[in-house]
Design goal:
The complex is a heterodimer. By secondary structure, chain A is mainly alpha-helical. Chain A is 82% helix and 0% strand. Chain A contains 11 helices and no strands. In chain A, helix 3 packs across helix 6, helix 4 packs across helix 6 and helix 8 packs antiparallel against helix 10. Chain B is 38% helix and 23% strand. Chain B folds into 2 domains: 237 residues, Rossmann fold (3-Layer(aba) Sandwich); 113 residues, CBS-domain (Roll), CATH 3.10.580.10. By secondary structure, chain B is α/β, with parallel strands linked by helices.
Chain lengths: 227, 374
């Protein structure tokens, strides 16, 4: 045991990780908090927008256009723009806003496409049986659109973990800090630890979302079509 | 009862349905048939207001359909479509309970109803209840679709080409099952198809549409006997005489009072029949072993003896079989008559090729509205 510890201790990043465990834990907590709050707000906001542009397709072109433009703005630049706005400034508000904006395209687009691609005969049958517009939406359309909507949220969330790293430049105390300080102090071990931990979180969240999806998406939709 | 009164629909400048009036009596099936674009589906979809009519109105059991809230109206109308439209995210049981749930039934009653309906459409409840639509074959899905439409026991049903998407064997099974069901359930049905054979098979009444107008609405017999114009007769096809064969069962055309003679003294008995003034009737002859033969009294002329014309009756059919089947059997065996089993305690009947020929001919020649006897 002792021997193994000796060897591992020779690996700089591992030693660094354990030496700074409490700091890294705090960073991780902050990182997760930011992304999770961000994704919850993003889901509430962008799923609604997706439903609205599905109901009023005339809006879809404009909204999806804006979402694509936002996606093209480099994140560091977006943070920069946000903190010049009154009421935003350095800190969580700007960080959250940026994350939510980046989630716009994957979520809104997937909701819109998913709702559109639900088999029209299913909707015809639902209406024909006497379901109201709201019942059709919530009981038939959204459950059937769930696989695609969920895929959009999954992409958005994993992306947010990465982009949150850069929020360190506007005052967030998260894993990005390890990378930022590593760069300014030319301390490669710090950079490596930061990058690896962020990556592990991203991969972990992706796997978790995969499991969650299995529960949230009806079993009937996960089956292969017979013949 | 469904009554359409001057119902019509315009889509912009295009008139899909002009002004259509039609009454479907309680418990009857009206099949709407016509080439694509004739307005049959539009007409059907106006009945549950999936398409809002531009003019006219529909009465369901004498009540103007606009008096009810549209969702409530639809819950009382079973709806079956070609693509079935089962909810893939819900189990078979959940699919079937859609309308009962909307109508607020309690869970126990719903559960019972689901099993009852699965049995009705000839699916094992135990095996299928918890499956998902994607686990079923096309034919099974349409059975579930039917069960779902009938779940809340609606008096009226709309069916849009319900059996068009399955293979011919499955289609026939579904049609037969549906006919059996309908005999029990006696729903008032509008059934849309483009297949005239299906229309003849399923309909008590056939409405032929063309260019958004009703061309002819009549019973299948009447339609085949007296197509109103060239369009209808073209639509029915040149083989209407053959199609008529499908419409009648053997007991409707058979000869029930054919004399039965014993083989040993058939000569004498035949002479008696002729003296009594009988002619042109089929005569059945039975030998000691119970084997049956037959001949037509007309065939006995001059020197012809019974032994020259007598021939065995090899085929026995049920009174419910169609005369088309009887024809097929006769052709297969090179016979010109079949024996039809009598109901319990009743004498058997005899159906002859000559009888069928006469009957079909007289139907084809009949005037509109005229009834043709045997």
């Amino acid at each position: 045991m002792e021997f193994l510890r000796e060897i591992l201790w020779q690996v700089a990043p591992i030693r660094y990780f354990f030496d700074n465990l409490s700091r890294i834990t705090t960073y991780t907590q902050n990182h997760l908090e930011l992304t999770l709050v961000g994704v919850v707000l993003a889901i509430i906001l962008w799923v609604s927008v997706g439903i609205i542009i599905y109901r009023y397709p005339k809006l879809s072109h404009g909204v999806l256009g804006i979402a694509s433009i936002v996606m093209c703005i480099p994140s560091i630049a977006l943070y920069g723009i946000l903190l010049t706005l009154p009421g935003f400034g350095l800190g969580r508000t700007s960080a959250l806003t940026a994350l939510i904006l980046y989630a716009m395209l994957p979520i809104v687009r997937n909701v819109f496409i998913a709702l559109r691609s639900v088999d029209p005969s299913i909707l015809d049958a639902a209406r024909g049986m006497g379901m109201s517009k709201q019942e059709v939406l919530w009981e038939v359309q959204i459950p059937n659109a769930m696989p695609t909507i969920f895929a959009g949220v999954r992409v958005a969330l994993v992306m947010m973990v990465g982009i949150a790293t850069l929020a360190t430049y506007i005052g967030e105390q998260n894993l990005g800090r390890l990378i930022q300080h590593g760069i300014t102090r030319t301390h490669p071990t710090m950079i490596i630890v930061g990058a690896v931990v962020v990556s592990i979180i991203a991969i972990g969240i992706d796997l978790l979302m995969g499991l969650l999806g299995k529960h949230l998406i009806s079993k009937g939709l996960q089956l292969e079509e017979s013949k | 009862m469904i009554r359409l009164e001057g119902v019509g629909k315009d889509f912009g400048d295009f008139t899909a349905v002009k002004e259509l009036s039609l009454e479907i009596p309680e418990g009857k099936t009206c099949v709407m048939v016509g080439p694509s674009g004739c307005g049959k589906t539009t007409t059907m979809r106006m009945v549950n207001r999936l398409i809002e009519p531009t003019r006219g109105t529909v009465y369901i059991n004498d009540e103007d359909f606009k008096k009810k809230k549209v969702e409530v109206l639809r819950r009382d109308i079973g709806y079956v479509i070609q693509e079935v439209g089962l909810f893939p995210h819900r189990t078979i049981a959940e699919n079937i309970s859609t309308t009962p749930k909307l109508a607020g039934w309690d869970d126990k009653k719903i559960k019972q109803r689901v099993d009852e309906l699965l049995q009705l459409v000839e699916l094992d409840p135990e095996e299928n209840r918890n499956k998902f639509p994607r686990q079923l074959s096309g034919g099974q899905r349409q059975r579930v679709g039917l069960a779902r439409a009938m779940a809340a026991d609606p008096p009226v049903m709309l069916m849009d080409e319900p059996f068009a998407a399955v293979d011919p064997i499955t289609r026939e099974n579904l049609q037969n099952m549906f006919l059996r069901l309908q005999r029990k359930m006696k729903k008032t049905i509008i059934f849309v198809t483009h297949d005239i054979n299906e229309a003849i098979k399923m309909g008590d009444q056939i409405a032929i549409l063309k260019g958004g107008e009703l061309v002819q609405a009549d019973s299948p017999e009447e339609l085949l006997a007296n197509p109103k114009n060239q369009f209808v007769s073209d639509f029915i096809g040149e083989d209407r005489a053959i199609k008529i064969l499908d419409l009648f069962s053997t007991d409707e055309v058979m000869w029930t009072e054919a004399p039965v003679l014993s083989r040993s003294n058939m000569e004498e008995e035949t002479r008696n029949l002729i003296e009594k003034g009988e002619k042109a009737i089929p005569v059945i002859v039975e030998d000691e072993e119970g084997k049956k033969f037959w001949f037509d009294l007309d065939e006995i002329e001059g020197d012809v003896s019974i032994n020259d014309v007598i021939r065995p009756l090899e085929i026995t059919l049920e009174p419910t079989n169609s005369i088309k089947l009887a024809m097929a059997r006769m052709l297969e065996h090179n016979n010109d008559a079949v024996l039809i089993k009598g109901d319990e305690g009743e004498e058997p009947g005899i159906l002859t090729l000559k009888g069928i020929r006469n009957y079909v001919y007289r139907i084809c020649e009949s005037k509109p509205g005229e009834k043709v006897g045997i």
